Amino acid sequence: MPVIEVTKRIKPQANTVYVQPANKCVIVKNGSLVLVHRTQKLNVTIDHFFESLAEACGSRGIGVLLSGTGNDGTAGLRAIKVAGGLTFAQDEQSAKFAEMPRNAIRSGFVDSVKSPREIARDIHQLVEHPYLRRPLTESEAEQAGKSEYEKADDLGRIFLSLKKQTGIDFSNYKFGTLNRRIQRRMALRGINKLNQYARLLRGNAEEVEALFDDLLINVTRFFRDPKLFTALRKRFLPAILRKKSRHGELRVWVPGCATGEEVYSFALCILETLGQRASEMRIQIFGTDLSEAMVDHARAGIYSSAIEKDVGPARLKRFFEKRDSSYQISRRVRDICTFARHNVITDPPFSRLDLISCRNVLIYLSPQVHKRCIPQFHHALNPSGYLVLGSAESIGTFDELFDVVDKKNKIYVKKVVPTPRPADLIRYEGPLFGSTTRSTSIDATAFSAQLLQAADRIMLGAFAPAAVVIDHDMRVQQFRGQTEAFLQHSAGPATLNLMQMVRPNLMADVRNVIRRSLKTNKPARKERSAIKFNGKTREINIQVVPFKAPMHDKPWLLVIFDETTRTNRPGKLSQPLGKTASQREIGQLRRDLAATKESLQAIIEEQEATNEELRSANEEIESRNEELQSTNEELETAKEELQSTNEELVTLNEELSNRNLEMMQMNNDLNNLLDSIQLPIVMVDNNLLVRRATPAARCAFNTLESDVGRPISHLKPNIHVPDLEDLLRQVIRTLVMYERRVTDNAGRHYSLRVRPYRTADNKIDGAAITLVDIDEREESDGSKAANAEKQFSPRK
Length: 796
Hints:
Elements (H helix, E strand, L loop, with lengths): L2 E3 L3 E2 L6 E3 L4 E6 L2 E6 L7 H13 L4 E4 L8 H9 L3 E5 L8 H9 L4 E3 L1 H11 L3 H4 L4 H15 L1 H13 L8 H15 L4 H9 L2 H12 L9 H17 L6 E7 L5 H14 L7 E8 L2 H9 L1 E3 L8 H7 E4 L2 E4 L1 H4 L2 E5 L11 E6 L8 H14 E9 L12 E5 L4 E4 L22 H4 L3 H20 L2 E5 L5 E5 L17 H4 L2 H17 L3 E10 L2 E12 L8 E10 L15 H97 L3 E4 L5 E4 L3 H5 L22 H11 L3 E6 L5 E10 L5 E10 L1 H18 L4
Parallel strand pairs: 1-3, 6-7, 7-8, 9-10, 9-15, 10-14, 15-16
Antiparallel strand pairs: 2-5, 4-5, 11-13, 12-13, 16-18, 17-18, 19-20, 19-23, 21-22, 22-23, 24-25, 24-28, 26-27, 27-28
């Protein structure tokens, strides 16, 4: 197989190996391998490539992580799995360096762990599977579900297997998402037909658990979408904290928390915002998920070193504890986070919350579930509490419950209005009326109150005029009395807007009266408006009364339809005042003309106000356009500066590369020199920590390779130098070489020399200990002395 180095852009060919050049990055773009400048740390090039593969290929991508060191590739496999692709990692038995695949396996982003030969065999089978040839789009999946799956009922059997083992009913999830995930598991198992996979699930608890994890898509990361957390820290968290007392309570809920990264991200963001106040305020952050395994993982708070890409060094140092090749959230952060298993569809929500972050959960649920979840979130939040949704999510038709405060980051604030439907917090399953004496007996006071309420309802229905309560956005909040004669539902999407419900011949009068009431903040009235209903013509009075509601600063309006006259003959209006028929007709026409003029005047005033608003908006847009132009010029200037800086960095990088080569050569020369002279040499720094030791020093000082970095006091040398540390400190302090004769445990003689360690710029950075074997010289000197003594000794 040819091996080719990637240059600029290459269309990959089969049976070819492509390698990445030094100091560059390779990404996948439009079916080609593209060479780009490296913009991240040196150890994440595989992550960069895998992430581009996930973006370009989606669910057709396959990521394989083989032998290697470090944690590169883990974040990339996460991206491939989120996109629906398949991920493999080499097993530790066959890997020469198992650290890289081991980190990915521990993260939970790997679908299959096998030897390279087995991985190749599986990929050969996978490429023929329909899931990889052309995955179904969501609309196609829906059609397939209607034509095939519902007829065969295989999907129902799969849901039944899941519900029996996990207790979760997935029938409320979107079919397109379910189908893609089921097809993905079928591809990994080498199964093409859905009924075969349904049979496999019946007696295979391990596969049911794997499918359950895939359907939940338990993939997340720290500070996902950094702009959102920046907005929370700068704008919304301070707004929440301003409403809290000094020793108040801050409560946050994160449904669908997966392995807990988002929960801890909110915790870190809150602690950074509070600063010194963190110890004074009670903080409770609830993270919930369907998977018990994910909840346990989140509760432990242990993550691979791949999080270094998302969490900065300052946060790692402040909020994490390093554990081998992983990090654990510190205890003080874990103490404010509570994790539990919870089903957002069926279980009751938490209460008295200041913030709910339900991101990328609702997109997998059906519209029927949305109609339950959004009102529950509204019920659970405190007044002016915030709801955060994912980029592809919205509150749907519930704009009467929430206002958008940050459209870009999908942050909503709760409106102080009644929740429109019950939150289903208590499920009553017993009979409506019990048969026991206790259930049928009613307290006398309660009975009287019920009688009074029933009588009031009869009186209001029989004698009170029809009316509606509307808010400042013209939305009807409450109907009172019989309003069908005045309001009607038009064809099309359902709405509660009063101006779209009122009958056409009343629209101008109602609009005019409401406008006058809002303008003066006083009751307004329009008399003798004509209306036709069921073939009868009637005259009614329209009255609008503004009033204030508790905990709401904007006015509410009560619109009253008071019927003044009733006729017994259909089509006959009560006779207006006048002597003759023509006079009466002229009077009626004058009244109609006056009403029309008044309505037209109101419309003209509204149009002028709208034009003025549009004019001011246009001026703001022009001002923004000028600001954007100036910003664009600044960005162009910054781009040129960055290009210049980049050229300087490239030059500096080349110089550093050359310097590294020189240093490597010098290091090799030094190592060979030390090995060739066969002298025991130990170098220490100013703190007396071992910096380097020659191989010959192992016998004299009992050193090992792992002793580098340890204090020299931890060594137990074979030579007798009890004051070695004092000698080293003395030499470092006085800069004078010291020499002494010493002996080892075997009685051999050595010359111990201690010299100061000088750097290239003549700075003292420790000391060097050298041992010279002088045993033979000592023996020679001893024999000479003995001979001399014999020669000059007196004879007997």
